[in-house]
Design goal:
It is a single chain. The chain is an alpha+beta fold and about 300 residues long. The protein has helices spanning about 25-30, 45-60, 70-80, 125-130, 155-165, 210-220, 235-240, 270-285; strands at about 5, 10-15, 30-40, 40-45, 85-95, 110-115, 130-135, 170-175, 180-185, 190-195, 195-200, 225-230, 240-245, 250-260, 260, 290. Strands 7, 8, 9, 10, 11, 12, 13, 14 and 15 form a nine-stranded mixed sheet that branches. The protein has a seven-stranded antiparallel sheet with strand order 2-1-6-5-3-4-16. The longest helix has 16 residues, at about 270-285. The chain starts with a strand and ends in a 7-residue tail after the last strand. The model has no long low-confidence stretch (mean pLDDT about 95).
């Protein structure tokens, strides 16, 4: 039995889940999305993800045809129909069917798609040994052109950086902003530790305000770890004591080598280990129950 997909008010099989070739999400990347995780029968940070989805939609003048509460019900029902307790949820809202022109006014009916499935970005051993990553030549979009805080369907900037990572034989790439400061990865936020201080780029350098990023900042402060949001260069990254990435799919994953340079002692640092443990504990205790709600 295949997956059940929510598509514009109906739950259809993955084979039946089709959109028009005139959909502007397909033609132009005109739309927004969220990646959400469920752990042990609970959806983690669902309210925060929905808020960001609706904020992103407002930023591109896209009216979502469901209320947040209705959308929440559809997400939970999609998980129930697929009998999932641990899952990755992809929630997509595209501008909808139009013509071959750019004009969003030609797209009267946005498309809402919810997919729930399994996901595994990195193998387990990399959480114990750490990733090798590279700094790539592809620069992060400048916020005045396309604000990375809008989680849009247009991911070509990230894909070009991912292609560079693929050519260099590593799983992830770090992008710099136009001024040469570390921004973010193709799908994750970046943290470093220096002299027991946790540092991550501020959003104004041109990064997505990651939900996992915010959770980790909160957990670190709760643990008494000093946290600063400030810019840093690749040289400061190379000289850091620890480095890790955060993202909904990746969770908290350590980095032990950047551009061939060994980070710290070349093994997962103590602050990184602590935050991985605390994050995993939180995902097992907090969340919106899937099977107690009857919405959808």
């Amino acid at each position: 039995m295949g997956l059940w997909i929510y598509l514009n008010g109906e739950y259809v099989s993955e084979e039946e889940a089709k959109i028009s070739v005139f959909d502007h999400g397909f033609l132009y990347g005109d739309g927004v999305f969220e990646g959400i995780r469920a752990y042990g029968g609970k959806v983690f940070k669902l309210e925060e993800h929905l808020k960001r989805l609706y904020d992103s939609a407002r930023a591109i003048a896209l009216k979502i045809p469901l209320s947040k509460e209705e959308m929440k019900g559809k997400v939970l029902e999609t998980l129930r129909r697929n009998k999932l307790k641990d899952a990755y949820i992809r929630l997509v809202v595209s501008r909808g069917k139009g013509d071959l022109g750019l004009d969003p006014l030609k797209c009267p009916h946005p498309e809402v798609i919810i997919i729930a499935h399994k996901i595994s970005i990195y193998p387990k051993e990399l959480y114990e040994k750490g990733l090798e990553v590279v700094v790539v030549s592809t620069r992060r979009n400048i916020p005045s052109a396309l604000d990375p805080c809008v989680k849009s369907l247009n991911y070509l900037n990230n894909i070009l950086a991912k292609i560079e990572a693929n050519y260099k034989g590593v799983p992830e790439a770090i992008m710099l902003n136009k001024d040469g400061y570390v921004a973010e990865c193709t799908g994750d936020n970046v943290f470093i530790v220096k002299n027991k201080v946790l540092i991550t780029p501020p959003t104004w350098v041109g990064i997505l305000k990651g939900i996992t990023r915010d959770v980790v900042i909160h957990l670190a402060r709760k643990e008494g770890i000093s946290v600063r949001e400030e810019v840093f260069t690749p040289a400061e990254l190379y000289a850091s004591d620890e480095c890790f990435l955060t993202g909904t799919a990746a969770e908290v994953i350590p980095v032990t080598r950047v551009d061939g340079r060994i980070i710290g002692e070349g093994k997962v640092g103590e602050i990184t280990k602590k935050l991985i443990r605390q994050f995993r504990r939180l995902t097992q205790t907090e969340g919106t129950p899937i099977y107690e709600s009857q919405g959808g």
